[in-house]
């Protein structure tokens, strides 16, 4: 039942299906000694019986999850060929008339896949407007958005776990190691696009990867090797991570680690929800009142109407609430111009207009970490 509720809560939970199925099959093939308390009912089974039982459990879980999904959608049944708001044609084929439970759920999955193929993406100064993205997008995201001590601890422990001696020292049974490594591996494969869909939008899409790796990284705290050296190093690493995160307060969403240049240089590497969700619009409104930023033109990457914060501005082409706003007329513009970093670096695929020429101009101010402000001279912007 829990699997079904997870699936209806978020479409990305579909990744749980291969994870659960593979775990059961692997544990059936490599069942631990009879002294283990893990799945004790398998203790007297042969390998073939355990495999058969695992497949049976997978099918049962799938059926129960399917019924839960169907129930959440009100046990509604629709023909396979039906479309929202349109009656099924009288001459529809037999396949189109086939009744399908929870058709709404299947439409949602199809819609997510469709949107992923058209969503723009950005990495290391380059944009894709057609949603193709890069297979190495999420490895870069992990490398620059993870605090360095945490990243080194996770990678180091993964390397150490290749040694049977380390696994024995940690007292980590094989079945528990699979439970930690397999979900992390499947999530990473999905992020690389191996499973057929990968949204190059933000680290939030692979956050479930972290708990498994952090649990593994915790093994450093119990390694008995040279405690006089290891413990001080761990203390330094924890302190480093704490200072690294607190230094970006209160702009935690804009965090980038030190090798990436920190929050002030992160927009050269990543934008979108890795950095910018329109969270600094309140800061911009406060700066406008305090520093008399009038008149103000604004290209915003967000969904909150600027007037909700008392911001007095002219809307320019952007995304969200400014999706239909006009492109800037550089010759006529005067006063101040504020641009969300996603619109500034992402190009027309994100903003509907190209603001990248502004990057050659001096910046007047910055609202938080994600809205850049330019002062337009009376002679106009010297853009070419």
Describe this structure in words.
It is a single chain. With 384 residues, the protein is an alpha/beta fold. Among the domains are: 130-264, no CATH class; 276-376. The chain is 41% helix and 10% strand. The protein contains 13 helices and eleven strands. The chain has a five-stranded mixed β-sheet with strand order 7-5-9-11-10. α2 packs antiparallel against α3 (47-72), α6 packs across α9 and α8 crosses α9. The chain is flat, with a radius of gyration of 26 Å. The model has no long low-confidence stretch (mean pLDDT 83).
Question: How is the secondary structure organized here?
Answer:
Elements: H1 2-9, H2 16-29, H3 47-72, E1 77-79, E2 99-101, H4 103-116, E3 121-123, E4 126-128, H5 137-145, H6 148-160, H7 164-170, H8 174-191, H9 209-217, H10 227-246, H11 281-291, E5 296-299, E6 301-302, E7 314-315, E8 319-320, E9 335-340, H12 341-346, H13 348-351, E10 365-367, E11 371-376
Helix pairs in contact: 1-3, 2-3, 2-8, 6-9, 8-9
Say how many strands there are: 11
In angstroms, what separates the terminal alpha carbons? 60 Å
Residue-averaged pLDDT: 83
Strand content: 5-15%
Strand order of the largest sheet: 7-5-9-11-10
From N to C, what is the helix and strand string? HHHEEHEEHHHHHHHEEEEEHHEE
| Structural class determined from secondary elements | alpha/beta
What multimeric state do the chains show?
single chain
Helicity range of the residues?
40-55%
Low-confidence stretches: none
Radius of gyration: 26 Å
Question: What is the 3D form?
Answer: flat
Q: So how many helices? A: 13
Give the biggest sheet.
5 strands, mixed
């Amino acid at each position: 039942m829990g699997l079904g509720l997870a699936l209806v809560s978020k479409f990305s939970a579909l990744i749980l299906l291969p994870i659960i199925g593979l775990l059961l099959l692997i544990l059936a093939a490599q069942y631990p000694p009879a002294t283990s308390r893990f799945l004790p009912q398998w203790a007297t089974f042969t390998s073939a019986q355990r495999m058969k039982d695992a497949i049976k459990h997978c099918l049962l879980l799938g059926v129960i999850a399917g019924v839960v999904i169907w129930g959440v959608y009100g046990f509604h049944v629709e023909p396979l060929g039906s479309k929202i708001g349109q009656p099924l044609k009288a001459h529809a084929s037999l396949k189109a008339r086939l009744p399908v439970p929870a058709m709404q759920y299947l439409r949602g999955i199809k819609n997510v896949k469709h949107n992923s193929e058209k969503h723009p993406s950005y990495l290391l100064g380059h944009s894709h407007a057609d949603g193709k993205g890069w297979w190495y997008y999420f490895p870069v995201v992990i490398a620059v958005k993870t605090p360095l001590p945490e990243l080194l601890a996770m990678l180091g422990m993964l390397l150490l776990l290749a040694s049977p001696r380390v696994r024995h020292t940690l007292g980590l049974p094989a079945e528990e190691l699979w439970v930690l490594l397999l979900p992390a591996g499947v999530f990473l494969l999905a992020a690389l696009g191996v499973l057929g869909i990968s949204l190059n939008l933000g680290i939030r899409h692979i956050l479930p990867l972290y708990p498994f790796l952090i649990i593994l990284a915790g093994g450093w705290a119990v390694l008995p090797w040279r405690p006089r050296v290891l413990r001080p190093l761990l203390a330094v690493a924890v302190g480093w991570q704490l200072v690294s995160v607190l230094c970006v307060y209160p702009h935690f969403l804009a965090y980038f680690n030190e090798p990436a240049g920190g929050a002030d240089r992160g927009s050269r590497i990543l934008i979108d929800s890795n950095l910018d969700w329109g969270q600094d619009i309140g800061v911009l409104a406060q700066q406008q009142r305090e520093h008399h930023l009038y008149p103000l033109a604004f290209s915003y990457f967000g969904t909150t109407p600027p007037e909700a914060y008392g911001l007095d501005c002219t809307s320019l082409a952007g995304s969200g609430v400014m999706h239909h706003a006009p492109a800037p007329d550089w010759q006529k513009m005067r006063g101040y111009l504020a641009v969300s970093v996603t619109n500034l670096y992402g190009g027309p695929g994100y903003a509907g207009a190209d603001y990248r020429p502004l990057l050659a101009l001096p910046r007047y101010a910055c609202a938080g970490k994600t809205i850049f402000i330019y002062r337009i001279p009376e002679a106009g912007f010297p853009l070419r």
